[in-house]
Specification:
single chain, alpha/beta, five-stranded parallel beta sheet, 9 helices, 9 strands, 16% strand, elongated, binds ligand 4FV
């Protein structure tokens, strides 16, 4: 997987990709991240990347020329490269988008700054606009880090045990079940017996019920999407009670 990141602050990424799973994926040759300073694609001696907005208004807008030059040089000769602008106007980035990107092979991440980029860049040079959430950041660099981290974890071989990827939050459209580790009792707080009993069938059932309960309680929106399943929330509620009764048996 190759990521090219276009930004006016390449140094902001130093350190972020030098630890953990992303570092290991780079060392294992699974991931190739290249940082590009947008100013290197300017042609004036002031290396200008922004200008005042037509129509007036506060702030500055990123100029089209440096962005077109950067994007065209980074996608040149690679038909399946995808150009992604990080912007609050984009579709919401979630685990399913991360799974989609993990099969893309080559993504050029364009990090906006100021009030945003000239719309002609979006119309003619950007394939996909992605937002990491409904809040306004000072730049697209942190969203780019989020995308790289979430996608890298899904690259085959990037995370030690693939099983943990299939099992984790949102993998099955549900929130994760509670996790515990030693000591079995801490400050009077005990680990649920079922997890100490070694009965994997019961443990799986308990975990499924906890995931359903949590999701129904905290994120019912996740329960009515095609990701979870077609059943209506009432059905899910009945399943939680049912699994509860089964448990008591
Ligand atoms: C953002 C987001 C975000 C908007 C103006 C950069 C800033 C500035 N990007 N998800 N939320 N971008 O707030 O992706 O150009």
């Amino acid at each position: 997987m190759r990521f090219d990141v276009v930004t006016i602050f390449p140094e902001i990424f130093r350190g972020v990709f030098e630890f953990g799973i992303v570092r290991r994926a780079i060392d294992a040759g699974l991931l190739d991240i290249r940082l590009h300073d947008l100013r290197d694609y300017t042609s004036d001696r002031h290396r200008q990347v922004d200008d005042r907005p037509f129509g007036g208004g506060a702030g500055m807008v990123m100029k089209p020329e440096p962005l077109f030059r950067a994007i065209e040089s980074l996608t040149h000769g690679d038909g399946n490269a995808s150009t992604v602008l990080l912007t609050p106007q984009g579709r919401l980035f979630d685990q399913s988008v991360a799974r989609e990107f993990a099969t893309t092979g080559h993504i050029v991440l364009v990090c906006g700054r100021y009030e945003g980029v000239d719309e002609r860049v979006v119309e003619a040079a950007i394939d996909d606009e992605v937002s990491i959430g409904d809040y306004v950041l000072s730049g697209g660099e942190i969203p780019a880090m989020v995308v790289v981290d979430a996608v890298t974890r899904l690259l085959p071989g990037a995370v030690g045990c693939e099983e943990s990827i299939e099992r984790e939050s949102f993998a099955n459209g549900l929130l994760d079940y509670p996790q515990y580790t030693r000591p079995a009792e801490y400050r009077g707080m005990k680990v649920p017996e079922v997890l100490l009993g070694g009965n994997h069938g019961e443990i799986e059932q308990w975990r499924r019920r906890k995931s359903l309960e949590r999701t129904a309680g905290r994120r019912p929106d996740l329960l009515v999407t095609d990701k979870a399943d077609q059943r209506d929330p009432e059905q899910i509620q009945r399943e939680i009670e049912l699994e509860g009764k089964v448990k008591e048996l």
